[in-house]
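Researcher: Let's do a round of design. I'm pasting the structure tokens now; please hold your answer until I've finished.
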């Protein structure tokens, strides 16, 4: 699923090749293509609307350095919005689940519950297997 979405988003940014300034008009074709790609990937409408609004805020009217091309700039902004919408990258919470487990273990002896959600085929079962292996190796 992610490879399909990735391929679609790569093609979307190609619309901006040769564009010097990003305007509402130049972003319109990009935005509609992104919307279609996300809809085809079963992303909820509310998430798509939020994603598109964040992308527009970052791109439209922004002055781009002469060293950078419009398609490269939008590609970077697309990546940043995608990362932010998926929860961001926070190095301070790198081992968050392990820390929560240790905290729980001090207070409780009951099992520790972890809820995991995701679309079909994105690796939920694999992630749980890796998490179990990680927790076993830490002698939890």
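Researcher: That's everything. Go ahead.
Model: Designed sequence:
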């Amino acid at each position: 699923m992610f490879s399909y979405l990735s391929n679609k988003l790569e093609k979307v940014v190609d619309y901006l090749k040769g564009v010097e300034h990003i305007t509402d008009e130049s972003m319109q074709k990009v935005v509609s293509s992104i919307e279609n790609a996300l809809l085809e990937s079963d992303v909820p409408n509310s998430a798509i609307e939020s994603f598109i609004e964040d992308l527009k805020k970052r791109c439209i009217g922004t002055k781009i350095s002469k060293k950078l091309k419009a398609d490269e700039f939008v590609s970077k902004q697309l990546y940043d919005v995608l990362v932010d919408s998926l929860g961001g990258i926070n190095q301070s919470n790198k081992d968050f689940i392990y820390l929560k487990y240790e905290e729980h273990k001090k207070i409780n002896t009951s099992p520790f519950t972890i809820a995991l959600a995701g679309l079909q085929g994105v690796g939920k079962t694999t992630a749980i297997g890796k998490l179990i292996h990680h927790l076993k190796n830490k002698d939890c």
